[in-house]
Amino acid sequence: MLLKGKTAVIFGATGHLGRHIAARFEAEGAEVFRAGNRLMESGSLKTAQVDATDESAVDAYLDKVAVTQGSIDVVINMAGAPPANYNHGKPAAEVTHEQFMMPLTVDTASQFVTAKSAYRHMSKVGSGVIILNTSTLAKVGSPWSPALTASHAATEGLMRSLAHEYGPAGVRVLGVRSEAMPDSPTIEYTFATMGANMGMGFDEMKDFIEQNKTALKKLPEASDTAAVFAFAASDMASFLAGTMINNSAGHIVD
Fold first, then answer.
1. Model pLDDT for residues 229-249, shown as the tens digit of each residue
2. Residue 214 Cα distances to 82, 176, 198, 201, angstroms
3. pTM summary value
4. With the C-alpha atoms ordered 214, 134, 185, 23, is the resulting torsion angle positive or negative?
5. Where are the beta strands (DSSP E) in 51-162?
């Protein structure tokens, strides 16, 4: 059990990948606290409604978790704006300035908010792991995705900055950069929308990406990516900091 005895807080835990990460962490022995924009069933500390862009709300939530658990070992933020809201998959000419800024002010900014709040607690005990999430868009010039491409590239820059600043206190900051996961609602939307620009349906778009973009000729599912997050959070990755784990099936070759 890679994460036995660890306390993990996952923001954006109501989303598809967030749910998979939470389940994998629990399977690996972690005590998981789920936070999301939508109120979850119990509404307890273990499943709380927290806006990851609200600094006061994030601080208050992590303070409560730290008091209850004694410390916080891992913080992950999967919060993000719905892709349809910023015309993801549409030509750049159809994306307004307001839409372009949306992932930056929600996805990237919330990563900063939750990381900064987590550091307050982790630095006191000299250990902890903060894992940021991006996609291959951060490194490749994919068309029809200006807003999310800019957001994910900015998130990777943020990761490098925080890794150097937080590392001396014993806090590891790193990230996971994944290829598209076809089982997720976000990629279902993305492949359908981008595919329309190319005269392709979802299945054709998936096959096109697999055969023309990846070395392995296949795409990961959310459960595959969740396993990488578990490894990144574990002591097996104790010397990984300031890096994006490349979970791209060979789309990006470093």
1. 999 999 999 999 999 999 999
2. 26, 17, 19, 19
3. 0.96
4. positive
5. 74-77, 128-135
